Amino acid sequence: MHLKLRSKLLLSFIFATVSLIVALFFLMHWSFNKGAESFIEQQDQRQLTQLSEKLAVFYQSHKNWDKFKKSPELWQQWLLAHASQMPPFADGGFNNMPPPANMAGIPDQMPPKPDNKPPPARNEFNHTAEFPPRAKPFYLLTEHKQPVAGPVSEKGKRMAIISLTNPNQIIGYLGIPPQPNSLMMHFKKSSLRSEQMQLIVYLLIGAFVLSVLVAVPLSALLTKRIGKIHQFVSHLTQGDYQRELILKGKDEISLLAEHLNALAGTLDKAEVQRKQLTADISHELRTPVAIMQANIEAMQDNIVPLNAESVDRLHAQILRLAKLIDDLYQLSLADIGELKYQLTQLELNQLVDDVVKEYQPVFNKHGLALDFVDKSKTQLYVNADYFRLKQALANILDNSLKYTDAPGQAVVRLSCDANLARISVYDSAPGVDANLHARLSERLFRAEKSRNRNQGGAGLGLNLVASIIEYHQGKLNFSHSELGGLNLEICLPLNNQNGKDD
Fold it and tell me: Taking a C-beta distance cutoff of 8 angstroms, is the pair 423, 352 a contact?
């Protein structure tokens, strides 16, 4: 049998509540019994104190314990007169309980007097012969702990009797043996304990009912919110990323809903990019293939002569196709973390100068000027891969070469500040709308509305540059160029701090 989450939560709440109630019941039962035992012990201690004071008065009057020693009955009568049970419990306490067993040999209940006899005379302790013998079995010892009256026991409680005339003189000892468990049994049978236990049971039942009343709507609320999350995730698994999960509150479940919404947005964006990537790649691959196919068919039909010029056009398309395939391969390696890097300490000034000198003839051929301005005034060293960093800078120059109108100009400037080396490549018109700067490093993105596409491009070069720079713990920034075009700036952490920008 498979229980739903709501049933499991409800049963868990009820089980926890019942366990707590049972534990509280036994704890309160134990605490109540311990309190009763402590109360009985306090009663014994109080009686010992009171009787010790009264025995001190007796000793003051008689100068000794001879009367108690000679007449055990007199001791019992004295106890009955001064130590009869007081009502500590409900309904008069012990007056409603059966008397404890008499440990002095006196019958538990005096026989009733015949009606024709006169009422019994009171003794010197103001106690009638009819008084029910309910005194506890106290015993009396001399100052030398010799028995005087009562059943002596080494266990139990014992208290010294102090002389009234001399606080430093002990005139005897009053003690009481350990009390039988019957006293506690009498308490357990009393109406006080029954009423208390009944009250505890009512409170626990009320707590159980209240817990159930709280657990039912609470479990329903939790499962309802989790049910919404389950339904939302189900839509995500089916590819529906347009939905939004709304859960009120500021707890962990609400926070989970926010993360799931963010996940849905990321998945939706990734799905759009995937579809766009597929369309763009198919378009980029189809264009050069279509051009080559058209040229070859024209040559086959003798429409276009097969000469060096025609072969050059075919070769240009093959190079374009090879560059696209290589870029895709490089990006796939970067995505899976397999793009190889060999980091060493490089002199950045020399690397930038080498790349600029390699591209100056190409720029001049297209009617563009390419200049290098080194404003660092010192050698800048970075921890980088020579080939990958050169590849990144070459891709930027390729981008500038493709999208700068002739006659035009491009400048590579090297500078530094604090712990950063800055390589800026900025060119002349046309520029790129500022709203599109953040998207320039996206895969297969081209700002064709603002920059010409004379030689074509797949929009993969700058994405690869961003991946390389990110690996070197640097940043790639885009802004407007002071020459009217686009400014691409590479920021790399330095291994030295010698350079200062002008």
Answer: yes
